[in-house]
Structures are given as structure tokens and as C-alpha cells.
Amino acid sequence: MRALRVRIRDGDADAFGEVFDAYARSVYNHAYRLTGDWSAAEEVVSLTFLEAWRLRARVEADGGSVRPWLLGIATNVTRNQRRAARRHAAAVARLPRDESVADFAEEVAGRIDDAGQLALVEAALRGLRRPEREVLALCVWSGLGYEAAADVLGIPVGTVRSRLFRARTKLAKAMEPLGGRGQVRGDRTTAVGPTQEGNR
């Protein structure tokens, strides 16, 4: 056994091959008993022999079987693996939980439908004259009253009312393909979808 230990210390690859052949099964069984997992045990075997090669200079020249030395290395490797697994598990536990992904087929279909409606609305708005769009934006989307809109634009209140009426009439006609849902009815309702911003 002395000759084998000396060869191991000297970095003799053939000697290490002999050690592997003689003790790999023993190291595996030990690792399996420690981990209870065959895959983890195989990894411990690999790391044990890599570590043994790295520590070969520490092997005493005199002594018996190197099996206890290998099992000691395997035990330390297993401890390190467990610590690493605990750190990994703790890191994963700190990550935000993934929420289940709902079926979004209906949402996609709705968005496609909404995109078509939006294109129709945009075309209808482009059909308005600039003064009509301004009144619509102020009174419907921003929620200003007629007098406030008149002050902003520097025009009479009656002009605001008439421009808003014309804008709504044009929009109602342009948006008839939407099914005549009445998006433009009433004096202060939302004409084309966006919510009112409110007074600021």
C-alpha cells in the first residue's frame, strides 16, 4: 500500500486509476447513504475524486487503505453540496412568485376587435375640422364646461355648443359601422372612448 500512496502523492495517473477502480463503488454507496439521491451521489463521486487529485500531496506515504481518506473527502463534498443547495433554495425563495398565466385568447381577440374600432375612431376624428376636434377634446375628453372651453378658445359659448354638436353628429355618422351603440349621444358623454381627464 505504501507504493500506491507514494505514487498517488507523486501524481501518478495510473495509480489514481487504480484507486478509482477499487473505491468508486464504495464512495458512491457512502454518498448515496448521505444524500438519498442517486444523481447527487454520482456528482459527489466525481467531485470526490477531483478533490482527491487536488489534495494528493497530503496523502501520507505510510498507512493502509486510502478508502477512509476518500470517504472523508466524500463527506466534506456532500456537506458543501448541501450548503450550496440550501443557499440556492433560499435565493429562489426570495424571488417573486410566478403567477399562473391565464388563457389570454379572449383578450387577444378583444384587442384585435378594439384595434379595428380604434382605427375607425381615428378615421372619424381625422374627418373633423380642427375647431371641432378642439371643442371635442376640451368638453368631452378633458371635461370642461362650455363656458370654460369658450374662455380657453376665446370664442362665444354658442360657438362651442354648435361646434360640439357638429363634431358629435359627424362622429355618430362615421362610427355607424360599430353598430350604432350611441357613443356620441347626450350633451357631455364620452364621444369616442377615452375617459375624461377632469378639471385641473
Question: What is the fold's blueprint, element by element?
Answer:
Blueprint: H1 2-9, H2 13-35, H3 38-54, H4 67-94, H5 105-126, H6 130-141, H7 146-153, H8 157-174
Structure characterization notes:
It is built from 8 helices and no strands. The protein has helices at about 1-10, 15-35, 40-55, 65-95, 105-125, 130-140, 145-155, 155-175. With about 200 residues, it is an all-alpha fold. About 70% of the residues lie in helices and about 0% in strands.
Largest sheet properties: none
Tell me, what's the shape? rod-shaped
Counting DSSP H or I runs of 4 or more residues, the number of helices is 8
Question: Helicity level, as a percent range?
Answer: 55-70%
The topology string of helices and strands comes to: HHHHHHHH
Mean pLDDT: 79
- Structural class given helices, strands, pairing? mainly alpha
Uncertain runs:
180-200
Cα distance, first to last residue? Answer: 92 Å
Using only C-alpha atoms, the radius of gyration works out to 40 Å
Q: What is the strand tally?
A: 0
Strand content: under 5%
